[in-house]
Amino acid sequence: MQSVKKGDRVSLNVAKRIYFFQTLGGISLNADDQVSTIIPETATEEHLKQIAVALNNEHLTIGQPERTAEMPDRKSDILAILLQGRNKITEWIANIKEDKKIPSKERVKAIETLVALETEGKNRKSVIVAAENALKFIGGISMVVETEKEKLEIKLTSGTDEQ
Known about the structure:
The chain is built from five helices and seven strands. It has helices at residues 45-56, 75-82, 86-98, 104-120, 125-138, and strands at 9-12, 19-21, 28-30, 36-38, 60-62, 157-158, 161-162. The chain has a three-stranded antiparallel sheet with strand order 4-1-5.
């Protein structure tokens, strides 16, 4: 069992629980309001035991909460992200990459849409590289783009017979 002490920062694992409340002197976390807090000096040994059990059950985590990403609903939402600037875009891509609560298919689709819109627009290499690295991490495959190329045909022969 993990041990905690007064002054440690604990965070709510919102994938498992949306709240964690203790009596007076303990901690109170709510996913809508406060996801992370420092264990106060007023916490009793009973409070610390309850927090340790919650850590074991993965309802709480030690430290800062996991990063969560906002998934865009439409192309216009992704365009709005692209207008925010390179640093904000790469931060959003990093959040999408690390947010395990969002299915891989949705993450890949959002990042591929971002890449397509970026190549049509400003075509910033740093944004495209960050997106491609995120796709590699997620395990996604970039979109297949057909291009017209000259067809090269090679005939194989064995001796004098053509195959």
